[in-house]
Amino acid sequence: MELRQLKYFVEVGRLGSFSLASKSLFITQSTISQQIQKLEEELGVELLTRDTRHVTLSDYGEQFFPCAVQVLEEARAGAERIQDVKALQVGTLSVGATYSFGPLLKQTVLDFYANFPRIRLNLVITSQEELRQMLLDRQLDVALTYKSPLGDDHIESHLLFQSRLSLVGRIGELKGVGREVSVQDLSRFPLALPAKGLQARDSLEAVLFAQNVKLDIRLEINSVRSLLDLVGSSPLVTILSEEAIHQVQGFEAVPIAHPDGRMDGCYHFLKGSYHKIAARKFVEMLKENNSFNQTFA
Fold first, then answer.
1. Which CATH architecture has domain 3-78?
2. Which of 48, 225, 265, 296 would you call most buried, defined as having the most Cβ atoms within 10 angstroms of its Cβ?
3. What pTM did the predictor assign?
């Protein structure tokens, strides 16, 4: 029994097609068919049922499939451990973050590259739901979001830092505001808001729920970086995590006085998976670069 035979079997079982598996693995259908046939001969059972148009798992195949997946995963994890032993001189790291979290990554990415220039860093900025699925599909090593766990029993979540939803503007624009701003006082300001679906906007909607407050919304945009550029060049103010302007010059933030205004930063791993040393180093650097209001899990 060879790992490649298990790999071919799992791919055919997953896709339900020799043709699709051939394209996915970049090898010929005949090679896949021959190797799976050898595997079946060794096991003495038929793992796949075949007709002219369909391929499905047999009763034996259904039982063998999760075992094959586990063996391949353990082999992959073993190979990654060997790479880690090489003092982070080779390898890849895939990091995902939500749009609202993205602006916090610049310094950490630069520091990581300076310390581990031979580690290839793949950075994905997308929605929280997409990050969740990418973790489950093992396309990410670690995911970064604000506020909440990703809501799956297969994902483990950890607190990275504490933060709050805040009114944000260039210095001097938040006139008449004390150490906190009430939900009602938000209506006094011309607002440029993150678009619906971004985490800061979702938190704002939770704060506004059942509140009789009408906001003066002048602009919505789905890029936090572009949003800060606009706010930094105009009388408009916005609502973001106070952490979003950490280490950014020319801005001030005043937390919103509401219990639903927590915007804690979190990092997430696939539960039970091997956590790459590179992933742990990246998280450590992120903690150091965003340590002004930090609590570790």
1. Orthogonal Bundle (1.10)
2. 265
3. 0.69
